[in-house]
Specification:
224 residues, alpha/beta, 2 domains, five-stranded parallel beta sheet, four-stranded antiparallel beta sheet, 8 helices
Length: 224
Amino acid sequence: MRILLVEDEKRVVLFVRKALQAEGFSVDALHRGDEVLGAATATAFDVVILDIMLPGRDGLSVLRQLRERGVHTPVLLLTARGEVNERVEGLNAGADDYLPKPFVLAELVARVRALGRRGGETRPVELRLNDLTLDTVAHTVQRGGRMIDLTPREYRLLEFLLKSSGRVCSRMAIVESVWDYDFDPGSNLVDVYIKRLREKIDGAATARLLHTVRGVGYILKDSA
C-alpha cells in the first residue's frame, strides 16, 4: 500500500515511516496542511494519515476540503488532544478512523492496514492504458495480450506512471514515490529504469506509451 503521512513533528514522521516501511508500505510525508490537496489529487494513495494540528491549514479543514473535492481515500486522523467533541467533529468531516496521541505504533499499523483493506474494496483491480494492463492483485503486466516480465522496481515504477497517466512525472517525484529516498541530482537511476521499462512495454508495440518531456520528466499516455 502507498500511504500519505501528514505530520509536522519530524520525530513522529521518522518513527511512523519506519514502522510502516517495515510492513512493506510505501510512505510519502508532508509537513504542512496546505500541501495535502495537491498531493492527494495527483497521486492514488491507499490511506492518508492526517494530523489535526498542522501549519498552513489544520487537519479538519484539510479533510473537509478533500471530501468536497471528491477524494474518498480512507483517512486516519491523529491528534494530541482526545476530546470527544473533536473526535465527533473529525468523523463528521469524513474521517474513517481516529487515533489520539500518544499512540502505540503497532496499533497505528493495524488501523492503517484495516483502512487499506476497506479502501481496496473500491479500488480498480486493473490499471489500463490502451492495450497495456497492470493487475494490482496478481502483480502481472500485459501489453497486447503478451505477458511482460518486470522486476519489482520496474513494476512499481510502471504502477506509479499508470496511476499518474496523462500527467508529467518529474524525476524527483518518481524517486520519492518509487525509491523512498531523496533525489540525488547526480544520479541517472531514474533514466536507467525508464529506459529498461520503455524497452519492455514499447519495444515490440506499434504505439509508444512512455514519453520523455525534455527538461521536465516522463509521461505515460496514449498517443493514438
